[in-house]
Amino acid sequence: MNFSRLILQWYKENKRLLPWRETNDPYRIWLSEIMLQQTRVAQGIPYYLKFVKAYPQVQDLARAKEEEVLKLWQGLGYYSRARNLHATAKIITEEYNGKFPSSYKELLSLKGVGDYTASAIASICFNLPKAVVDGNVYRVLARYYGIDLPINSREGVHYFKEKATKVMDTANIRYYNQGIMEFGALQCTPQNPNCRECPLQDSCVAFSTNSVGSLPVKLKKNKVRHRFFNYLVPIDGNKKTMLRQRRGKGIWQNLYEFPLLETGKDIEVGDLTENLANYEGLEEPSEVYLHNEDKIVHKLSHQHLHTRFWIVTPSANLEEGIPIGELHKYPVPVLIADFIKTLKI
Could you tell me which residue ranges the HhH-GPD domain spans (predicted)? Predict the structure, then answer.
């Protein structure tokens, strides 16, 4: 039995019951695929169910306010996915009359949709012979065929796409693509793969050469950037505080946060108060103290945020303050959300 047939047989016997596998609706497949980028399935399921309940059709998502979408997305991270999701919903609604395009090329032109997502939607929803290549597929192909090209190199990306296309089962592409991804997620896992009970064991190059642990090969990541965030949390006599919306193209675009002082290293309270003149309403506080003695290190993909929260008592009540009890209404990074839970005012 050849590679693709073995994958299909394994999938038939071992596939998980996941909510997006109950449909071939391109809206729901697209939604699940965008959510599962950089996200574990177990974490993604409740978000998928929340979005489907709040926005049953793509037109419902298109009509939503961006802040509502970001709030529902809160905790999934990589917020550009949510912004692209919202933008694409509007495009589908306005330019395609609420129907997803059925060609790979048109799918690829949508905001936030790359080769993998376009291939997944094209194959699962429209039964088009397009091979998917995600982290799971890279791993399965690298081990089974003994491929040591770095999966994140230009040459490697091209080679693996060609290999995936060559070995796919075009007659059963909908199930084959889901099968090979599932095989990588459950059987051929990154750590401690179940080689003993693997149906591909007899013909797997990595198993026969004892190189399972060294494949796939990946080029080293860029050096991690360390940043020092000092959040200024004003709390006035009316138990009100202040949030600002992040702008620009950096992390957490359009999410809300407390006024931020970013420094080149950890600072003490004296250094902090010297900078408060730059923050309207906080120029001459009656009190400033550190909320968290132990610094919080929030790790993102290419940067670590060394974070401290400083409670600032302004000398006058905030003119446009937000009641602390209403902070939960705003879309904020999970770092801020976790801090808000600790506020006992």
Answer: 35-186
Report which residue type is found at 92: I
Name the domain count of the chain: 2
Distances (CA, A) of 64 to 21, 24, 75, 182, 309: 26, 24, 19, 33, 32
119 and 34 in one domain?
A: yes
User: What CATH number is associated with residue 108?
Assistant: 1.10.340.30
What's the CA gap between 35 and 18, in Å, rounded?
14
Query: Which residues are the active-site residues?
Result: 33
Share of the chain above pLDDT 70, in %: 99
Would you say 101 and 107 are in contact if contact means Cβ atoms under 8 Å apart?
yes
63-77, 154-168, 190-204, 265-279: lowest mean pLDDT where? 265-279
Alpha-helix runs per DSSP H in the chain? 3-14, 26-35, 41-54, 58-63, 66-73, 80-95, 104-108, 115-126, 135-145, 154-167, 173-186, 205-208, 269-275, 334-342
Q: Is residue 316 part of a domain?
A: yes
**Residue 180 sits in the same domain as residue 292:** no
- For residue 219, being part of any structural domain is answered with no
CATH number of the domain bearing residue 314: 3.90.79.10
